[in-house]
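chain below, 109 aa
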Amino acid sequence: MAFAGVLNDGEVKAALDGCAAADSFDHKKFFKACGMSGKSADEVKKAFAIIDQDNSGFIEEEELKLFLQNFSAGARALTDKETKAFLAAGDSDGDGKIGVDEFAAMVKA
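prediction:
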């Protein structure tokens, strides 16, 4: 697991199970359930780096679509509706992607 040593495997599994059905993903519930919302700013930045697959410094729409797969290879992709809602929730400056500060704000919200 990409988050070994940072997140508890049981909490991650519970978080993934909680959004297994299509269109059931809620980022606030997910971050809380997997324990990420309680992590330090440094740990959240490390999580961002894992999710930012292309190392662009931003999480773009395609990376968001595959967000859950960062937590478990067998996890589903987000639906287009979920992906767009996730991006809209995190993209506070309207540039079409989520930067590290925007991500941190989402996790802590």
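The longest strand covers residues 58-59. The helical segments are 9-17, 27-33, 41-51, 61-65, 80-90, 100-108.
thats it, cya
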